[in-house]
Fold this sequence. Notes:
By secondary structure, this protein is mainly alpha-helical.
Amino acid sequence: MTSGNTSSTQRPGARPGVTLGLRQNLAQFMLLVAVNALVGGTLGQERTVLPLLADQVFHLDLYTSALTYILAFGLAKAGTNYFAGTLSDRYGRKPVLVTGWFIAIPVPLLLILGPSWGWIVAANVILGISQGLTWSTTVMMKMDLVGPSRRGLAMGLNEAAGYLGVAATALATGYIAANYGLRPGPFLLGAAYIALGLGLSVLSVKETHHHAQLEAANHTVAHPSARADLSNRQVFTLTSFRDKSLSSVSQAGMVNNLNDGLAWGLFPVLFASAGLSIERIGILAAVYPAVWGAGQLVTGALSDRYGRKPLIVGGMLVQAVALGMVALGQDFGIWLAAAVLLGAGTAMVYPTLLAAIGDVAHPAWRARSVGIYRLWRDGGFAVGALIAGILADAYGIPAAVAVVGAVTVLSGILVAVRMRDTDHKPAL
């Protein structure tokens, strides 16, 4: 069993002075929290504005066409997540993080200047690649720093920062769009985030790969699947299919982001069709990730104390209830309550899924397993865009939301039946 206590024990060749633990690495950890808030803000610049841009500027009539940007984003981010884990093991975490920020530089320009919808889709391909590199590495670096004992808390802080960044920016861009137009104002904020994130990552962020090496040196194996010497193919099949816990987490992550893709792409259109103002749409677009982000400050630590499985199952079912309220609702009050509930359910699930991956995966291939989980999870954006678009075109947005809610219930049941609850003080 790996001890929950931090350790300064060095293996041969390890860097002197390297220790594991949140308190021991607090300054660097909090810097990474700030960096991930900027990563989230870079995504948040789109949450309120892009669905309205598709409708009001480019006049895309079919929901499936309007959701192409989420499909492009999801596919690009999902694929990049896989490579982010492999690259960070090979070259280190910091080079991957910095590269992700460099790749994001043209995104605001494409969103501001794009004369056709194809430019917007291209911007989202680039944004997906950037997010796959930057968000994945901030997750890995925090896992590296804290070690095994407070992993849920670390993931809660990481994801809270990211999604509070999404929420604050969605709210800010809604205000900017309402007062100054859909372009260019909202995307100038995104450009500022990219400049600041790149500067901090280059000048202040330190490499953390040696922390993972220290943990691996003191790691004992409880069962054969957790041994250190697994190939990329073995890690992929274990995370995706063979291990009951890892594969349950992967499918739940995909369904969770299917819900998020639906909320991102169709909720603003639904709210606008009901006559809500841009300001109110911005509020609804911000409340969901705000509750999601703030809630993770609590739920990550709760999963350390009470285990991962109860929060995952409960969170998926809460999300399903919220989606039912969106499908049946017809006014701002009901949708506001649904946004709060959807954010709460997602907060229960999101950091807990990442922590569960960290519990089971060996430190030697944990970054690859996280990348594979995030491949499946962010593939949910693409699946959600396709399913939601096709169903909304055929039967309307409320029907699409109801179907996705039913899928979410099934996902929660699958976790309840199949997943072994990982030890909140990881035992591999």
